[in-house]
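Q: Could you fold this chain for me?
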Amino acid sequence: MKIGMIKNWKTVIVIAVLFQSCSSSNITNEDGFKKFFEEYKVEGTFALYNNGQGNFNIYNLSRFKDSAYTPASTFKIVNSLIGLQTGRISSTKMIIKWDGVNRSNTDWNKDLTMEEAFKVSCVPYYQEVARRIGRDTMQTWLDSLSYGTKKITTRIDSFWLDNSLKIKPDEQLGLVKKLYFEQLPFTKTTMQAVKKIMIQENNSNYTLAYKTGWGFKENGKSIGWIIGWIEENKHPSFFVLNLEGEHNIDMVTIRKNILMNCLKQLDYLQGKK
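A: Sure. Below is the predicted structure, expressed as C-alpha cells.
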C-alpha cells in the first residue's frame, strides 16, 4: 500500500463542493423522470452531471443528496481498485477458482478472472478478494477514500451487502467522476484497468461504462444502483441511478430500462453531446 498517497489525500467524495459551485441556473429538476419510476412501481433518484457544460439534471434531489443505502455490487469498483493496488489481485486476468458451490446464478459456477467476475457481478469472487485484502487494510482505504459511512461492523466479506456500510447517491456520482479523471489515490495503471472493465457498451455514438448493484434494506425492500458515465464525442457525463422497490422485483430489467429512458430523454445515446 502506498501510505504517502493516502496521507496526502483529503477526500475523494467532492460532489458536495461540485454541487455547491453550481448556480440554480445549472441545476434542472427533472420531474418528467417520475413516469419512468412509476411505470415499474419503484421510488428512486437519477442524477446526471454534464462535465463539459457544468450542468446537473436531477430527479428527486432530496434522495440524491440526503439518503444513504447499501452499495451492494457497486462496491466492486472500490474492491477492485484496492485489490489491484495492494497486489491481492495481480491483474484483471487473475483467476480465482470456483469453490464448488452451485448457485442460482450459473455464471458464477466456474473459475473466473477478475474481469469476468466484474462483468457478471460475481459475489463469491469479490468476497474472496475482500478476505485477502483483510479488515485493517480495507478500513484504511475506506477512511482514505471517505467512502460513505466508512463502517465495517460485520464480516469482511459481506459488509457492503448487509447494510453495515452505506453510501449516498451523490457520493457515488463523485466517486465515478474522480475515477474517470484518475484523481483517486491509486496508480494510473490501477484506475485505468478498472475503467476499462466498467465499459458495457462502445459504439460509434457513445461509450457507456457503469457498475450495477442490487441489495436489500433492513425491511427487505430491494435497492438497485447503476453508477458510471456516458461519453459522446470525448465529452463525459456522469450519472447515478438509485431505486427502491419490493423484494422480488425484476431489478435487472427495471434499472437498465430506467437508465436508458432517462438518458434518451436528455438526448444522449445519439452521439450529439
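A (continued): The chain has eleven helices and nine strands.
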